[in-house]
Write a structure and sequence with these properties.
Layout: H1 2-31, H2 33-48, H3 60-64, H4 70-81, E1 100-108, H5 118-133, E2 136-138, E3 141-143, H6 145-148, E4 151-152, E5 155-156, H7 168-173, E6 182-184, E7 191-193, H8 194-197, E8 198-199, E9 202-203, E10 209-211, E11 214-221, H9 226-248, E12 255-261, H10 264-273, H11 279-294, H12 305-328, H13 340-360, H14 368-398, H15 403-439, H16 453-466
Antiparallel strand pairs: 1-11, 1-12, 2-3, 4-5, 6-7, 8-11, 9-10
Helix pairs in contact: 1-2, 1-14, 1-15, 2-12, 2-15, 11-12, 11-13, 12-13, 12-15, 13-14, 13-15, 14-15
Length: about 475
């Protein structure tokens, strides 16, 4: 019983404190609305400059895997003892990270399911040459695959399977059989490990290769330093562009090419995320129209259509400012954050309707500062508690082990804080100005002076009685 009394007293104390504080704030805004419009606008402009500090993150492994997961710990142990050296002693077997690479999967286009043919290998040589000659630019420096390739004993990692063309006459005549899975090239002395390059291989009874419907070639890039990693990423983009152009232009008659790079998944996820961008304008227009329409009344003086629009504008300004502030703090930005503005608009509209409802409950006979004080006092608990619960929810999300969730919650939580502040300052000041227009009997949309409702009704009744 004593505990319940203390809880009730605590809640009552908080409620009273909020009401008194917001009442005083409302009266100050009612007397000086201009300051509370100018300052938030200036702060929004200042915080928006934080977008120049944008640190865009698209790595899916970093974003969607637990920070302290067992897999990362075990990989660290492997890398400690079996570190990959891309510069001098590269070994495919030691790879534990995607790194930077380009991969092509080749299948037949002409109906013959077997790739082991001279005309196919001639086109493969052309394709290999195109990839080696793909030129990328970094800091004004042009470079090709041979300049950045992963090396072993000073030589680039090569797709030695192409050297089968040295024996193609013997293979096509049937004099030479390709023994699966390993075979030595008697002309180049390469050891061909067929399962590395061939896919879906069909074998005869004596374990020789009958046909090869698919083949892959991989081009690994050195990534021992951050600079190499960045150069490799730029080369990957050029690789995808060159191979894609060759495939789409119909350059090859016998082979069909599928291309893949280490960042292909990153770009695909990012492309899917950005599909929400075209909906921004239509969503904001729809929400703005809804807010304007629902804020209108039959009384052209007391109607508040502009406040419906300004409520949306306040939420947009606050979200932009919050995002810029987070970027100034050095918080990484992800594509998932593009979904946050839709949530923030909903929160802002909710606060808008709560404050407008509180305003309409006040007496029109009171002064604007007094009405603003009562309005803010009435709406204080509602908008404070809803904003606080949203903020706490996002704070809890920051404790998630997934960086993508952490980043999204940081941006969204900060946006909710800014929306709360912008609504009790910028939007409240707009309400005060609207209140002065209402006090002067100005039209709510066009701003010209109209007759009070009571006078208009009496004039209409008198006109009807005269007729």
């Amino acid at each position: 019983m004593l505990w319940n009394c203390r809880m009730a007293w605590g809640v009552s104390c908080v409620d009273t404190t909020l009401n008194r504080s917001f009442y005083k704030l409302g009266k100050v805004i009612g007397r000086n609305p201009g300051y509370f419009i100018i300052v938030p606008v200036l702060l929004t402009i200042i915080f928006i400059t934080g977008y120049q500090q944008l640190k865009y993150q698209i790595d899916p492994e970093y974003l969607f895997s637990p920070q302290n997961g067992a897999g990362k710990h075990e990989r660290a142990i492997v890398e400690e003892f079996f570190r990959v050296n891309y510069t001098s002693s590269f070994s495919v077997e030691r790879i534990t990270r995607a790194g930077r690479f380009g991969r092509v999967i080749i299948t037949t286009k002409d109906g013959d399911r077997n790739l082991i043919r001279r005309e196919v290998f001639e086109e493969l040589r052309v394709l290999d040459s195109l990839i080696h000659n793909a030129t990328a630019m970094y800091d004004g420096e042009s470079y090709r695959y041979n300049d950045i390739c992963a090396r072993s004993l000073g030589e680039c990692f090569e797709n030695d399977i192409l050297n089968l063309d040295e024996m193609m006459d013997d293979i096509e005549s049937g004099e030479l059989k390709l023994h699966f899975p390993i075979m030595v090239n008697y002309k180049t002395f390469d050891t061909h490990v067929f399962p590395v390059f061939f896919g879906g291989t069909e074998l005869t009874a004596d374990r020789t290769i009958a046909s090869v419907p698919a083949m892959q070639m991989v081009y690994f890039v050195a990534v021992d330093t951050p600079r190499q990693l960045e150069k490799g990423g730029i080369w990957e983009d050029e690789f995808l562009s060159v191979v894609g152009h060759a495939e789409n232009s119909g350059m090859f008659k016998h082979i069909r090419i599928a291309r893949f790079a280490s960042r292909t998944l990153d770009h695909e996820l990012e492309r899917n995320t950005r599909t929400v961008v075209p909906y921004f304008s239509s969503t904001f227009l729809l929400m703005g129209s809804f807010s304007v329409i629902t804020c209108m009344m039959g009384d052209v003086v007391r109607s508040k259509p502009w406040l419906g629009f300004l409520g949306n504008l306040s939420a947009i300004m606050a979200t932009l400012a919050a995002f810029g502030f987070c970027m100034y703090l050095g918080i990484e930005f992800i594509g998932l954050n593009l979904a946050a503005p839709f949530l923030m608009i909903g929160i802002g509209i909710d606060d808008t309707f709560v404050m407008l409802a509180a305003w309409r409950r006040t007496s029109v006979k009171l002064s604007v500062p007094e009405r603003m004080g009562i309005t803010m006092s009435d709406a204080a608990v509602s908008i404070t508690i809803t904003s606080l619960t949203d903020i706490i929810s996002f704070w809890i999300g920051i404790m998630s082990p997934f960086p993508s969730v952490q980043i999204f919650c940081k941006y969204s939580g900060m946006a909710v804080c800014f929306i709360f502040v912008w609504h009790i300052t910028f939007f409240a000041a707009c309400m005060a100005i609207s209140g002065y227009c209402e006090q002067k009997n100005l039209h709510s949309i066009f701003g010209y002076k109209v007759k009070p409702v009571s006078v208009a009704i009496k004039a209409n009744i008198k006109k009807q009685s005269d007729t």
